[in-house]
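step: validate -> pass
step: tokenize input -> pass
step: predict -> running
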Amino acid sequence: MCSCAFEGTREQLAEHLDQCKFEGLKGFLSRTDDLIHDLQEELKRKDDDITFLRSMLASLSEKVDQYEKSTSDKIGMSYGIHTYVGFLNVALQLSNNQVQMARQQ
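step: predict -> pass
step: emit ->
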């Protein structure tokens, strides 16, 4: 956090505080620092959620692929499953784009 570089005696401090431009900003800077810390924690939680969801998507995609392989010869309808997996991948990409845009702001 920003602060002034005042150096002096106790007697000079009272006069300095009356003129110091940082003294008026102290509360604002403290609240801003707290907000930044909270946002960093929230971003970390969201990154953890994204990592978890990616692993779940990978696991589900693998299961869908296995299911497709075991049933495609029997029913010949693999197109629908590929479409669903494609949709999941597009949704994940959109989520990643939103996270990237949030980080840039």
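step: describe -> DSSP finds three helices and no strands in the chain.
step: cleanup -> pass
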